[in-house]
Design a protein that fits this description.
Blueprint (H helix, E strand, L loop, with lengths): L4 H11 L1 H14 L6 H6 L9 H23 L11 H22 L28 H15 L6 H18 L11 H5 L5 H9 L10 H7 L21
Helix pairs in contact: 1-4, 2-7, 4-6, 5-6, 5-7
């Protein structure tokens, strides 16, 4: 059975609250330990986040995601609600991060600066609250263009939503200011997933670690920098404020 596009869009919006509020709730309940206090002192942000931008980002997100569902359901590429394909899910995760890595590198080039990604790099110590500090241009390029293209991969509604939730969850974790225990587990490392340590390296060294989901993309492009070689990432207790 197929439904109207806004039914699919509404379910997705509801599911997408998991990455945006689930991590905050986890940190609150477990009292996870922040691990960048000294780096925060050494690398002050020196900016004030503009809360007004949250509204424009939300409106843009809603309009684009609604358009995506309307377009793809018109072509029946994601309307199956009776099954789930793990192959489609994995393929979407890998290709989406590959596209994101290329787009991210482009935003750091002289031509890509029109998207004002450097605004986001005023954040030397990324946190969950500050991860949304970015321009509308890079919001569309970094997230929505990839989502539109990935939607062409045949699959069901559920494997696409699983892709959206898991990819957003990992991207949110990248900007966490807390040391989550699962980032150091054998499974997380075996899957070559990006953690908060890897992405924090990118904010200290903007020409390294462009990927949001999988480490192997940066290794493929020769842009990976292991956090253990960066002062203040793992041995943060030894870093002194200037």
């Amino acid at each position: 059975m197929e439904y109207s596009w806004y039914i699919y869009c509404s379910i997705e919006m509801l599911l997408m609250t998991i990455p945006y509020y689930g991590i905050n709730l986890y940190d609150y309940l477990t009292k996870s330990k922040p691990w960048r206090r000294e780096i925060q002192k050494r690398k002050p942000q020196g900016i004030e986040l503009k809360e007004a931008s949250v509204l424009s980002h939300s409106i843009t997100h809603l309009l684009i995601r609604s358009s995506v569902w309307y377009f793809h359901l018109h072509h029946s590429t994601m309307s199956n609600m009776n099954s789930i394909s793990l192959v489609s899910f994995v393929l979407k995760m890998i290709l989406y991060d590959g596209l994101g890595t290329v787009f991210h590198q482009y935003q750091h080039s002289s031509y890509g600066r029109v998207f004002n990604h450097l605004k986001h790099h005023q954040l030397r110590t990324p946190t969950l609250a500050s991860s949304a500090y970015l321009s509308l241009g890079e919001l569309v390029l970094s997230n929505h263009i990839g989502w539109i293209i990935i939607g062409f991969i045949p699959g069901s509604f559920w494997d696409h939503c699983l892709f959206l939730v898991i990819s957003s969850l990992i991207k949110r974790l990248c900007h966490s200011n807390h040391d989550h225990p699962w980032e150091n587990t054998k499974v997380y490392r075996w899957l070559r997933l990006v953690g908060s340590h890897e992405h924090h390296v990118h904010h200290l060294h903007p020409n390294k670690n462009f990927a949001d989901l999988f480490i192997f993309w940066d290794k493929l492009f020769g842009t990976f920098l292991d956090p253990k070689y960066v002062n203040g990432i793992y041995k943060y207790d030894q870093v002194k404020a200037n």
